[in-house]
């Protein structure tokens, strides 16, 4: 993903540090512009760059005001906003110069933000002598007017120093030997702004790329590494993984379009994937494979306008997983962007103990004689369909087992008081009505 940044050199240096530390996957383009007024050459340069940009961030509100119309609404754009943390840092800097932060002039920050910060710092109104320079329309004289107001208040002894977020104003105040601090954006604000642009870009990509390809790569768990050496054992475990994969495909209107010795390739509608994963918050398939087989997996997901593009992006995603990665998911919405690594596995990786949910399923399995994997599948059905009453026919269809097996399973759950008959339902034109079972794993 290519993101452009425009601003003064000092602000771009701060942005570069954040990008180099936290955003190694993006391709930044930096444009130094120290002008505090609209410039036709800058406009022309940005228009030329627009065709290559996936997003754009202005280092300050002034440049955003002048040039954001070049990108909006075609390309996500924003500016590095001023928040309480950057102002608080400025208060600390001016204090270190021996000047009380309660006796300074401030520009670019709203009076409500300053007032709220004063309350948080426990400063009483009687002790606060801050002079706020209210914002006005941005024009060619904006910076000069700010400078003159700061200068006048200082030489009239209304304040002891100045805090400004406009770099040309800061430079002029320094030349006049007026004590001042340049309000710099914090790392957190810069990170949030870049994250926002990334999110907006991915949302825009998602609106048009409706095909999803999922590649699932099978990796025998470390403690079962001997499986890889035994073809029979490996295929036995792969069949277990296949059961989970095909069950997932059946319930999400997906299709398993390819299968190799260590991979499954699934084609589906992106909308169904988003719904199944609760907007990419959970991925039950990964947990099902982990809990019911002796295999770990890595998952690569690609989006595309067509299956070919989605598969290409899914291959890029699966290649992102390191050789030591286990149960990690990467998503490639387009060739220029990557989301991940995402960790959907619901376990405590710091301990080798089962989590509480697994312990509950194991206990229920011991009580009823129904396998733990089937208990988990029934639990998933209850969560997915938001109902806990089933006939044997309904359960057999949803679990993909025979009705006789489903009836036997329900009787076992009834004997262990996990299920109980709460009514009857006619499921066909002939024969007796079927029993309706209520299944309760908790609160029995």
UniProtKB/TrEMBL annotation:
Instruction: Please indicate which superkingdom the organism of origin belongs to.
Output: Bacteria
Which InterPro entries does this entry report, sorted A to Z? Answer: Rev_trsase/Diguanyl_cyclase (IPR043128), WH-like_DNA-bd_sf (IPR036388)
- Recorded protein name is Helix-turn-helix type 11 domain-containing protein
- Organism encoding this protein: Geosporobacter ferrireducens
């Amino acid at each position: 993903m290519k993101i452009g940044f425009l601003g003064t050199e000092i602000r771009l240096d701060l942005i570069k540090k954040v990008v180099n530390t936290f955003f190694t996957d993006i391709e930044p383009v930096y444009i130094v512009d120290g002008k505090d007024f609209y410039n036709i050459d800058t406009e022309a340069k940005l228009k030329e760059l627009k065709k290559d940009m996936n997003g754009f961030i202005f280092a300050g509100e002034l440049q955003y005001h002048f040039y954001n119309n070049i990108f909006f609404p075609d390309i996500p754009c924003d500016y590095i906003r001023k928040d309480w943390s950057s102002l608080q840092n400025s208060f600390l800097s001016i204090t270190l110069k021996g000047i009380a932060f309660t006796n300074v002039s401030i520009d670019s920050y709203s009076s409500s933000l300053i007032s709220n910060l004063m309350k948080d710092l426990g400063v009483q109104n009687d002790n606060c002598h801050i002079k706020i320079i209210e914002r006005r329309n941005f024009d060619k004289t904006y910076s000069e007017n700010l400078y003159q107001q700061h200068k006048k208040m200082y030489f009239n002894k209304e304040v002891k120093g100045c805090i400004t977020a406009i770099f040309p104003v800061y430079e002029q105040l320094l030349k006049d030997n007026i004590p001042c601090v340049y309000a710099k954006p914090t790392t957190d604000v810069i990170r949030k702004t870049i994250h926002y642009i990334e999110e907006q870009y991915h949302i825009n990509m998602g609106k048009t790329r409706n095909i999803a390809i999922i590649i699932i790569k099978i990796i025998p768990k470390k403690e079962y590494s001997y499986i890889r050496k035994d073809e029979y054992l490996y295929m036995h475990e792969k069949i277990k993984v296949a059961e989970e994969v095909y069950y997932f495909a059946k319930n999400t209107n997906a299709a398993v379009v390819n299968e190799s010795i260590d991979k499954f390739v699934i084609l589906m509608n992106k909308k169904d994937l988003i719904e199944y994963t609760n907007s990419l918050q959970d991925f039950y398939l990964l947990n099902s494979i982990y809990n019911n087989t002796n295999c770990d997996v890595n998952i690569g997901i690609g989006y595309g306008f067509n299956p070919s593009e989605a598969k290409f992006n899914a291959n890029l995603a699966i290649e992102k997983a390191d050789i030591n990665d286990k149960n990690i998911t990467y998503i490639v919405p387009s060739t220029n962007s990557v989301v991940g690594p995402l960790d959907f596995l619901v376990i405590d990786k710091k301990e080798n103990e089962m989590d509480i949910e697994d312990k509950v399923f194991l206990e229920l399995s011991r009580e009823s004689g129904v396998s733990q994997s089937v208990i988990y599948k029934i639990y998933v059905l209850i969560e997915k369909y938001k109902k806990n009453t089933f006939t044997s026919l309904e359960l057999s269809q949803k679990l993909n087992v025979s009705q006789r097996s489903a009836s036997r399973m329900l009787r076992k759950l009834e004997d262990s008081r996990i299920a109980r008959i709460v009514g009857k339902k006619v499921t066909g034109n002939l024969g007796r009505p079927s029993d309706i079972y209520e299944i309760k794993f908790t609160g029995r």
